Amino acid sequence: MTLERPFDRFPRKQRAELPNINERIRFPKIRLIDTDGGQLGIMSPREALRLAEEKDLDLVLVSDKADPPVCRIMDYGKFKFEKEKKEREARKKQHTAEVKEVKFRYNIGEHDYNVRLRSAQQFMADGDKVKATVMFRGREAQHAELGEELLHRLFKDLEDIAEMQQPPRKEGRNIIMILSPKKLA
């Protein structure tokens, strides 16, 4: 009959993902740090685990790159919960910039242009990039210079809040320009 170690019941791949705590620490000597941050010295993992169990806490490997490796006595469940909580908060606060699109025709009316301009300003205020597209149909493609003028006018109107990431470029029957919000200094 073989002696079952606590982590032998997990498959090898899953075992590799488990944290190095308590019996999983396999070094001849480790440097031990107490719960309040004070160093307890260099000792064997078995002695350190005994000290951790006396305090009803876990022995956690902090750095395996150091010589000798550094371990800390802490409540691992609480530590893991706090770490996940901080990561969740960080994800909530971060904003991924999306690319929003405003579409024009080269012969757009003044009021319609102003509506698209306000939309682009709102997208910029939200921190998103704006893809401005001038669409042409049929023989309208002969007036590509009017489409470029329209995009340059849009950029001129947004110049104080936007920077040109990609200048106007013809793609098939469309002319496309990408603007991004200016970085606040």
Automatic annotation (TrEMBL):
<dbReference type="InterPro" id="IPR019814">
    <property type="entry name" value="Translation_initiation_fac_3_N"/>
</dbReference>
<comment type="similarity">
    <text>Belongs to the IF-3 family.</text>
</comment>
<dbReference type="Pfam" id="PF00707">
    <property type="entry name" value="IF3_C"/>
</dbReference>
<dbReference type="GO" id="GO:0003743">
    <property type="term" value="F:translation initiation factor activity"/>
</dbReference>
<dbReference type="InterPro" id="IPR019815">
    <property type="entry name" value="Translation_initiation_fac_3_C"/>
</dbReference>
<feature type="domain" description="Translation initiation factor 3 C-terminal">
    <location>
        <begin position="98"/>
        <end position="182"/>
    </location>
</feature>
<comment type="subunit">
    <text>Monomer.</text>
</comment>
<dbReference type="InterPro" id="IPR019813">
    <property type="entry name" value="Translation_initiation_fac3_CS"/>
</dbReference>
<dbReference type="InterPro" id="IPR036787">
    <property type="entry name" value="T_IF-3_N_sf"/>
</dbReference>
<feature type="domain" description="Translation initiation factor 3 N-terminal">
    <location>
        <begin position="21"/>
        <end position="90"/>
    </location>
</feature>
<keyword id="KW-0963">Cytoplasm</keyword>
<dbReference type="InterPro" id="IPR001288">
    <property type="entry name" value="Translation_initiation_fac_3"/>
</dbReference>
<keyword id="KW-0648">Protein biosynthesis</keyword>
<protein>
    <recommendedName>
        <fullName>Translation initiation factor IF-3</fullName>
    </recommendedName>
</protein>
<dbReference type="Pfam" id="PF05198">
    <property type="entry name" value="IF3_N"/>
</dbReference>
<dbReference type="InterPro" id="IPR036788">
    <property type="entry name" value="T_IF-3_C_sf"/>
</dbReference>
<keyword id="KW-0396">Initiation factor</keyword>
<comment type="function">
    <text>IF-3 binds to the 30S ribosomal subunit and shifts the equilibrium between 70S ribosomes and their 50S and 30S subunits in favor of the free subunits, thus enhancing the availability of 30S subunits on which protein synthesis initiation begins.</text>
</comment>
